[in-house]
């Protein structure tokens, strides 16, 4: 036994140690070098790809909105918001946002709950279809609603015949009602998908345990499912608000005649009045609002993902 | 001790849920489900059906169903309409390919580094277009590139440029979601066996990412074909994509020609999506 610990062997070990330490140092140096190269790679990407693509245009936008004849000025902002046509434009935009995104979220969560907990025949098909629906352009949804709910549309004419009226009963489409309807139809599927994903991560044993202990359906929904799936549902809802706020096609097709909203006002002052600084002022305000919504979304989404990672 | 199962009487718990529900609640829940299914079809399937139906209608206004069917709206599509279709497809493929390549590059460069320091900043920059309204991004790009030093405002490149910025977050997320830790092990194994980085990229990483690349191409194409806000803000004179033409026709009240053109757009994008994504393995779809 003791021969194993002879001075010879110990000396050999120390040489091995030195070699090993040397190779570890070389390895650590190589790792550091690689990490430094990766950092430079990222800097290169930021400066030469994302800079011209994202950062530089947005910076120019902010600068132009603040540029006056003599240095900084807020003249463009007063021009944009002082215009009698666009007075109250932020209020209108936010009102439409809250009503339509709120309704779309409620509808989306309810649909997802039915599809997940009470699947009817063809529910899988509906889920697939809702996934495809996301690739459907939003202005097309607004356009098809003209055929259905416009004053000469099929639903309107059918109601007229049913109620024996002289004039078509529906005349709400080119205005706030039509915009809200189109946005609810288009954005509810965007809530269904994240909500389904949140439900799929639920531990169904908890639901069954609650049911076997005598909880009613509503109680299970309110006390078990909702608290567990809440982060995912919240992320989906905030995403729906963000997308609805950024919507343009529906507002252009159904709202551009009677309804002045922020994106349409920006678009018309940029391309109809050809007044880029004024348009930039409106765009900066809209940018600030949508980026704060986006920051909120990122926070909530990160938290939801951390929770699912912990849960696994 | 054979027990006839028919004669086992369960102990009666006064608060236990009955196994078979009464007829009335069953009918009520059935009616509720039917209503939900009807609502789904009404809200989401009907709009798609209406595009198809109206494009073959000879006349549809003031009636519940179209008066008659004809192909005349397709026959009347002019060369400018077909030019718009070709332009849309060209721009769409350009945006999809460029966006996928850039997204892949970003995802590989940022793998495991997107939480701290420079990496977090680059990740944020790449994702920011997700939170920017398309009109605002279009206006920003127009302001930045409409005069010297770099004037793109009279070429189609500015449309590709602005759509690329809009599509990039989706492509980047597609690629980075596919770089899962369990796949990293294979890459490290190949590298430790002496494969040079280019070989690892070619033989291990890219084959692993094929489903993600397909999904990213399909997503980029679909988003680009339907993009309206940013394109409408920046498009140069003499250039038009299908959405621009369709919206112009809708605003002037030419509904039926507009639906013929939109049906062509939908069919083209569906065909492209099927071509790109259909042969992807099942796992990528789920």
List keywords for this structure.
heterodimer, A: 312 residues, mainly alpha, MetI-like fold, 2 domains, two-stranded antiparallel ribbon, 12 helices, 79% helix, disordered N terminus, B: 286 residues, 0% strand, disordered C terminus
Fold topology:
The complex is a heterodimer of chains A (312) and B (286).
Chain A: H1 7-66, E1 67-68, E2 71-72, H2 75-82, H3 89-117, H4 123-133, H5 138-149, H6 154-163, H7 176-200, H8 204-212, H9 217-245, H10 249-255, H11 262-271, H12 276-311
Antiparallel strand pairs in A: 1-2
Chain B: H1 23-55, H2 72-75, H3 79-110, H4 117-127, H5 134-144, H6 157-178, H7 181-192, H8 197-226, H9 229-234, H10 242-251, H11 255-277, H12 282-285
Structure description:
- The complex is a heterodimer of chains A (312) and B (286).
- Chain A is mostly helical.
- Chain A folds into two domains: 2-71; 76-311, MetI-like (MetI-like fold, Orthogonal Bundle).
- In chain A, 79% of the residues lie in helices and 1% in strands.
- Chain A is built from twelve helices and two strands.
- In chain A, strand 1 and strand 2 form a beta hairpin.
- In chain A, helix 2 crosses helix 12 (276-311), helix 3 (89-117) packs across helix 7 (176-200) and helix 9 (217-245) runs antiparallel to helix 12 (276-311).
- Residues 1-11 of chain A have low confidence and may be disordered.
- The two termini of chain B are 51 Å apart.
- Chain B has twelve helices and no strands.
- Chain B has two domains: 28-56; 78-285, Orthogonal Bundle (MetI-like fold).
- Chain B is 69% helix and 0% strand.
- Chain B has helices at residues 23-55, 72-75, 79-110, 117-127, 134-144, 157-178, 181-192, 197-226, 229-234, 242-251, 255-277, 282-285.
- With 286 residues, chain B is mainly alpha-helical.
- Classes of the chains: A mainly alpha (312), B mainly alpha (286).
- The interface between A and B is large, with 76 and 82 residues.
